[in-house]
Amino acid sequence: MMDVLTPRQRSHCMSRIRGRDTKPELILRRALWSAGLRYRLHHKVTGRPDIAFPGSRVAVFCDGCFWHGCPDHSVSPKTNASFWRSKIGKNRARDERVAAALTAEGWKVIRFWEHEIKSDPEKLAARVKCIVRKPGGRGRRP
């Protein structure tokens, strides 16, 4: 199946896809802020997590269902299928490497799928809050 756009049009469309401040990330950030959590964005640590809590060493990643190959919602493109299989496979391998590196550096890594964030951000914020403010942990207590 051929692409309906010219290579130049496709390039333009793909260049508009954001890597930060995505809608799911903004939804989760709003819920975390409402829960009383204060965080850092794209903190300068391995993997540049979307949201970081340096004091308690918690890194939160908001993974898009398409870009990271969600087992429930990922759909394989019909055009240029081998490229996309490879691309998503590399993204998932990088996610695993980053999580392992952060864990080795003493960070707790939390990953949320885009569909989880959209369905119940308050529940996820409560989960993060429990981890960040865990008694006996490194995080500050209320």
Written description of the protein model:
- The chain is an alpha+beta fold and 142 residues long.
- It has one domain: Endonuclease, Chain A (3-Layer(aba) Sandwich).
- A 4-stranded mixed beta sheet has the order 1-2-3-4, with helices on both faces.
- The model has no long low-confidence stretch (mean pLDDT 89).
- The protein is built from 5 helices and 4 strands; from the N terminus they run ααβββαβαα.
CATH superfamily: VSR Endonuclease
Number of strands: 4
What would CATH call the architecture? 3-Layer(aba) Sandwich
Q: Secondary-structure element order, as H and E?
A: HHEEEHEHH
Radius of gyration: 17 Å
CATH T-level topology:
Endonuclease, Chain A
Outline the fold blueprint.
Elements: H1 7-15, H2 23-34, E1 40-41, E2 51-53, E3 58-63, H3 81-104, E4 108-113, H4 114-119, H5 121-132
Parallel strand pairs: 3-4
Antiparallel strand pairs: 1-2, 2-3
Helix pairs in contact: 2-5
